[in-house]
Amino acid sequence: MLPDPRLVDLITKAVAQAPSSKGPLGVAVSGGVDSSMLAVHACYWARAHGVTLHLFHVHHGLQDAADQWQHRVHDLAHQLQVPCHSIRISIESKGGKGVEAAAREGRYRALAQLADKVQVSHLLLGHHQNDQAETVLLRLLRGAGPHGLAAMSPVSTRGDLCLIRPWLDVPRKTLEAVADEYAAQTGWYPVADPSNHQDHYTRSALRGRLVPELDERWPAWRANVVRHARQSAQAREILQEVALNDFDTLEPSADKTSFALARWRALSPARQSHVLRYWLQFHGLPMPSEARLNELIKQLRNLHALGHDRHMRLRHAGHIISCEKGRVCLQGAVFLQGVGKTGC
């Protein structure tokens, strides 16, 4: 089968946006329509550019047919004459996380392990326009702000791995047509994941209940929502630059665990809030609820001018936010045990 030149061109453009790499390229392949067709087109792209390609498959063990999916992916790799690596993981939903979130985190950890074994630094992912539109809707319904509404980035990093999503503007129906043609010519066909139609999964419920109504009333809604995600991503970049510049004016400590209260108070209310979010995000902490953030801001605004108040101690995600001698400080769990360091 000849590849769709438009799909190959999108891979070319996406890879060009990523940090340069002279090493091999990986493709995450579940066996479904999107990832398998990405593997097919990435194979053509890799050969044209003299790049070694590796397929990675994660066996979650969540479906009875998972063993068959693994065999199907290896069959595809054999057909494409590229190496394929699999890993089996166990999914445990802990800390209030659902199965979907636990599976996603487990999958990314497993992909990073596979990539590290064969020295792959860049990984292609098969997310498409439908996935992106659903992600925006889910985040909107969960109350995400501008950062969250940017949804998935065409190029992003997770740990040491560069993630590349070349097909975020490609409708799933386009990939389905390509998969049908590939099956007709080669006899290999993608697997079907029954969880996509199981209503107890949040994304599946969205697909089964809300999406059909949107399709009927607003046929072009996916493209519009994905365009909104691109615009949100641009806004996110601008806001990130503003937050970085603002934080640099706060006389931060070398490790950025503390900053000057007086300098923070000189910012406008909106920028005070934004720079606090940036500070917490920089240290890898989850965003506080709106009420929690407002409480922090209220306490910081009401402190003595010198900011010396040992009673101002707000807990967040295993850390303590306090203010001592005019500096707002972030103290981690290790510090609280008496063996760590802080900028205060």
Q: What is the total domain count?
A: 2
Distance between the termini: 64 Å
Strand order of the largest sheet: 3-2-1-4-6-5
Estimated radius of gyration: 23 Å
According to CATH, the fold-level topology of the largest domain is Rossmann fold
> What is the CATH architecture term of the largest domain?
3-Layer(aba) Sandwich
Order of helices and strands: HEHEHEHEHHEEHHHEHHHEEEH
Query: What is the residue-averaged pLDDT?
Result: 88
Give the CATH level 1 class of the largest domain: Alpha Beta
Structural class computed from helices and strand pairing: alpha/beta
The CATH homologous superfamily name of the largest domain equals HUPs
What can be said about the biggest beta sheet?
Answer: 6 strands, mixed
Name the beta content range. 5-15%
Q: How large is the count of helical segments? A: 13
| Amount of helix | 40-55%
Low-confidence stretches: 334-342
**Total strand segments:** 10
Shape: elongated
Explain the layout of strands and helices.
Elements lengths: L4 H13 L7 E4 L4 H17 L3 E7 L6 H15 L3 E5 L10 H19 L4 E3 L4 H13 L4 H4 L5 E4 L2 E4 L7 H15 L15 H16 L3 H28 L9 E3 H5 L3 H14 L7 H13 L6 E8 L2 E6 L2 E5 L1 H4 L8
